[in-house]
What we know:
By secondary structure, the protein is mainly α. It folds into two domains: about 5-85, no CATH class; about 105-205, no CATH class. The protein is about 60% helix and about 5% strand. It has helices at about 10-15, 20-25, 50-55, 60-95, 105-115, 140-155, 170-190, 195-205, and strands spanning about 5-10, 30-35, 45-50. The chain has a three-stranded antiparallel β-sheet. Helix 2 crosses helix 4 and helix 7 (about 170-190) runs antiparallel to helix 8. The radius of gyration is 22 Å and the shape is elongated. About 20% of the residues are buried.
Amino acid sequence: xxxxxxxxxxxxxxxxxxxxxxxxxxxxxxxxxxxxxxxxxxxxxxxxxxxxxxxxxxxxxxxxxxxxxxxxxxxxxxxxxxxxxxxxxxxxxxxxxxxxxxxxxxxxxxxxxxxxxxxxxxxxxxxxxxxxxxxxxxxxxxxxxxxxxxxxxxxxxxxxxxxxxxxxxxxxxxxxxxxxxxxxxxxxxxxxxxxxxxxxxxxxx
Length: 205
């Protein structure tokens, strides 16, 4: 008997022979969805109860859909490729508008953003209220990382460019391109953050 608390990822469902169209039509909304708190990724976390997946696999609807899957899969693949090409072209062409802020204001917003995420900010690391820094100001590296994180969050609206991409390969390619463009735009707007942007691009892929 399947454990009712066992989940399978979207990739795992695909490995069982499901197409993305079958997942959308027969499974619908994932049982668990959101952002994976353990790592940074634009890809939303989607989990399906294994027991529910197995139940659907025993239905006539699943058998009928599976019987038609070669023809439907070919059409779905062609559509997915057209969609992937269109999304990549849109990402390359989209102007990325980075908020331009005075250094003290950017620091203030970066620290506030870090606090909103639930990360502690030691008093010695918070920027001074006045433009002049206190002698015990934050390490430069920490502020740079917080500023890049804040600006990356401020540009999250561009993730809408990924809408409609379901295939793991096509979506992954589009996510990498979007990440690179966003970090390049941040580096161009704030040259002092360029090194951290390049580091993140290399680490995140």
